[in-house]
Amino acid sequence: MKNIVLLLTAVLLSSFNGIDVKKDEKDAIRKVMADQQEAWNNYDLEGFMQGYWKSEELKFYGSNGVTYGWNNTLARYKKAYPSKDYSGTLKFVINDISKISKDAYYVMGEYHLERSVGNADGIFMIIFKKIKGKWKIISDTSC
């Protein structure tokens, strides 16, 4: 009987620990996105890009097709949003964060840009991966 109680206690403790880790991971991902939102709203596109994996393997899929690589993605943002009038004020709405594997999550949500040149709204699905201890976007589909 004592062994059963110890076993059940161990199982319960490990399951609670897993829940805390998952919440911490989701909170860390939300923090990356909050930092991106703040950088965007300061028209700091390089700061916004810090949430992305700085690699030529980064993929951004939007209305103009696939853009490969961190530098090309930054250039795409600079071309599409050449001034604060075009970048406006960004608000992310996160609708779901789901674990894919040990070190990866997908995030589905909405973006809303309030701008003097006309508002823009859309949806996104991004994939985060933990790389060198930090959560980074490795793939972004936005439309």
The second-level CATH architecture is: Roll
Question: Could you give the order of the helices and strands?
Answer: HHEEHHEEEE
Radius of gyration: 19 Å
Q: What is the overall pLDDT average?
A: 89
* Beta-strand percent range: 35-45%
Approximate shape = globular
Strand order of the largest sheet: 2-1-6-5-4-3
Percent range of helical residues:
40-55%
CATH topology, by name, is: Nuclear Transport Factor 2, Chain: A
> Describe the biggest sheet?
6 strands, mixed
In total, how many beta strands?
6
What does this structure look like?
This protein is of the alpha+beta class. The protein has a single domain, classed as Roll (Nuclear Transport Factor 2, Chain: A), CATH 3.10.450.50. It has helices spanning 2-41, 45-48, 70-80, 84-87, and strands at 59-62, 65-68, 89-101, 104-114, 120-131, 134-142. A 6-stranded mixed beta sheet has the order 2-1-6-5-4-3, with helices on one face. β5 and β6 (134-142) form a beta hairpin.
